[in-house]
Amino acid sequence: GRMGRFTVWDYVVFAAMLLISAVIGVYYAFRGGAQKSSKDFLMAGRSMSALPVALSLTASFMSAVTVLGTPAEIYRYGAVFCIFAITYGLVVLCSAEIFLPVFYKLGITSTYEYLELRFNKYLRLCGTVLFIIQTASKPQSCSTLYTGIVIYAPALALNQVTGFDLWGAVVATGVVCTFYCTLGGLKAVVWTDVFQVGIMVAGFSSVIIRAVVVQGGIERIVNDSYHGGRLNFWDFNPNPLQRHTFWTIIIGGTFTWTGIYGVNQSQVQRYIACKNRFHAKLSLYINLVGLWAILACATLCGLALYSIYKDCDPWMAKQVSALDQLMPYLVLDILKDFPGVPGLFVASAYSGTLSTVSSSINALAAVTVEDLIKPYFRSLSEKKLSWISMGMSLFYGGVCIAMAAVASLLGALLQAALSIFGMVGGPLLGLFALGILCPFANGIGAFVGLISGFVISLWVGIGSQIYPPLPERTKPLYLSTAGCNISSGNLTSTAIPLTTVFSPPTAERPALADNWYSLSYLYFSTLGTLITVAVGIIISLLTGTSHRAVTECVLDLFQTKMTRELSLPRGVLVTLCKVEVLNQNPFTMPSEGTDNPAFSHIEMDVASDKDKVNGLHI
């Protein structure tokens, strides 16, 4: 049958989504006397409650990559991807019980401030710089590079199928996003995310409901999927080289995602903005339900895709040029008689983009202001800082749109660079884990650990780009074009087109390529984390932990400062400590060490005082 194209109504629906997002930004910019301080702008004045934050975390997790990519992933490789449901549970547990208490208690704006408190300012700088470049191959990390692809890729996929104007969409989303981030700060980001989650669920639901109607019931979809081998949940192959098995997803997935949820600025910044620690934890647990719902929607869409196209795969029949385009193709195919509904789907894909990009812009602004501007320009007033934060939002918004243009020119190259940079997440997670879980780790150990984790991750990452894993490692499932009534000859190849920039002839694959470089992409982070922690521990023990007493004392004073509000600058604290350590009998260690901010014996819950954060006048 004829494929639908976009109608006026679809454009109207899409424009309405952008407009409402912009209006939310304006509302928060002028409500409650605008943004008085950078704290208000970047941290929403630490007054958010759990539900909006939870929905916001869910939204930025779901970029357009989730809306377009996950259903295609399930269509191609089967529903083993669902095992991520267990992974998400583990990730949220780790984040809420290990990382959240530390960050919340210290009342910091940038997660990298922790690195300075725990180790030294050089490690903080390392963390910050890595983060700004870090363009984890996961859409959740914020980064200037990645955001370009996040804006451009969905625009391209939708453009090729629906004829939706490419640059119009890119510029419109970029501008609207920058607009509400700059005006409304974190509050606007969170509330637009809440609205966008609604749109995404609506888009998914419309596709699922219509597909079930077309196929005459959900039984038929499940049945087709079963016979097509798509319900491959329980693959217990322990081989770390297989792309997705039960173990790679549980173990590798947990490390990869904890790097995003536990220590990534864009996520942490939001749950730290909650009004108290209970709300912060609650937001993570509610967000877990959101993640499960989204995963269920995406899975159903993927199985519906298979059920509808099991006899005629549009990708092999050359109807679409990439797997990302399957969802838009399906939407135009089954919803063409419903004016405005394809527009709703496109709006839901772009909602994914908007929410990811807005959290990126806000987090990048926060990190820049807190880690690169505040420490070096001490005299700036709060008012000035809030203006600078706005300026940074505007700047990063511009950079993101520019990056989308770069992505259009250097697509494949950028993709390769991203997958390589994605490895950064592992070592960074290792660095935080070292600081929080190993009281005896010191700055030298942490630094050497970070570097070695980084080098090994890069080695595997670059290797896997040069020698992509073989199809028997990724296990694509069978697709058929038997039922297609299209007369075109060359439909015999079932090989996956490799999107890598440089793939040498397959004959000369070194032994390393099939054993080391074919590691499942989910294990890259795991490797980086484990190596960072292991090396960090060994080096710390070798270089001695003589600074322990100093650290301990700094933190003790820091805590008294928090509770009794001693107003001393941090430098004085350290000197006081050194003096105190000299006067101390070196062998009397306090019964419980507090060189670790996570497990200190003073619980701080003074966040109820609105004007001060945890009793600390900031």
Automatic annotation (TrEMBL):
It comes from the Eukaryota. One of its GO terms (biological process) is propanoate transmembrane transport. It is found in: Cell membrane. Keywords: Cell membrane, Ion transport, Membrane, Sodium, Sodium transport, Transmembrane, Transmembrane helix, Transport. It is a multi-pass membrane protein. GO terms for molecular function: organic acid:sodium symporter activity. The chain crosses the membrane at residues 12-30, 50-68, 74-100, 166-190, 197-218, 244-263, 284-309, 344-367, 387-410, 416-437, 444-467, 521-542. Its main location: membrane. GO terms for cellular component: extracellular exosome; plasma membrane. InterPro entries: Na/Glc_symporter_sf, Na/solute_symporter, Sodium:Solute_Symporter_SSF. It holds the Pfam family SSF. Belongs to the sodium:solute symporter (SSF) (TC 2.A.21) family. This is Sodium-coupled monocarboxylate transporter 1. It comes from Acanthisitta chloris.
